[in-house]
Design a protein that fits this description.
- It is a single chain.
- It contains 4 helices and 20 strands.
- It is of the alpha+beta class.
- Strands 13, 14, 16, 17 and 18 form a 5-stranded antiparallel β-sheet that branches. It has a 4-stranded antiparallel β-sheet with strand order 2-4-8-6, with no helix packed on it.
- A hairpin with an 8-residue loop joins strand 13 and strand 14.
- The longest helix has 39 residues.
Amino acid sequence: MGRLILAACLVVPAMAACAGAGRPARTAGGAGEPAPRVLESLGDKDQVLSIGHTTTWHVWVEGNARQEVAVRLHNSSPSVLRVKGGDDQIVRLRGGRNHEIRLRITAVGLGASRLGAQIYYDDAHREAVALAEVLAPLLRQIETEFAGRRRSLAGSGADAYPLAAVSRLVAETEAALEETLNYPELAALRDYAADRFAGARAELGAERRTEARRRGARVALAAFSAAGSPGPPPADRPISTIRKETADSVLDQVARLLAKIGGLAANHDLAVDLCIRSTPLQRAEFTMRPLKYPRVGPDTTTDGRLPAYRGLYVYRMAKRGERSIECGWPGGTRKDCTLDLVDNSQPILTCDFRDGLCQRQDGSADACGSGESRGR
């Protein structure tokens, strides 16, 4: 049976992670009060946990016992550990070890365990910075591992790569990225990544079909030229290699995606402000949500300023008595429409009820008032 070693000190960047010692939280306490610190411990030192067995995760706040602090408890390794209550929890704790929270942890697989507890901010931009500090080194690691495995593929100098190895590298990189970005706020960014990986897989699939056609043509030609001879292998034999130029095109797409998302985290650029406008009608209700995530996201009333995490969204603008304007919205007519907050940096979205269309524009989100933005 596989076993996972759980050390008492969890190596998670930017988090207070060791029993008995913590890093100051990224917020100041009240006047004359020290900043609270989030501390945690997991099981016993060098505990060996077999798959299916459990241990306890202890999290507490060091600071003023009268002050409640919002703390985010997050599991970035759901394929390795299962946390009672879910992989992402926001709890409120008072200072002192006697107010600690205890969560049952179950080992469900082998690999690196990544648990973390940190101060949680209601403000989207402050929380985005906190998440970026956690994610940046993890994303760098994914990018480094991808580059290393890609170099090993190219090491032979052949003009073709093993198709299974290329497909496995793409699939495992996608899985690692999805697991690392498994915060609710990053659902739209996961959708963006999934869309780019789908494009890479489509190119691999097209290459398989092209190669199968080439092979079929060669088989037919050989059969015609030398009837009765053994000839080449049958056309339905599995395709085992992929041309280097096609593989490099696919892997270049993945490399660019990793660099882009890693850059967003490294530059503390995971969230943006949008200015949502409507014309000629005012006070319209605007709602957006991640492309595939089943919950409604932030909303506002026009003209309104709306903080949002980067990624792909669908949206709807509605005004009582008027036909709503929809982009990719479930049940709507414009299915092939998304709001891209990664590749498009234009901060102003203006929707015109006269023609039922919305348009991105250059400018500043400051052009809008605060509006009535809502939603986590």
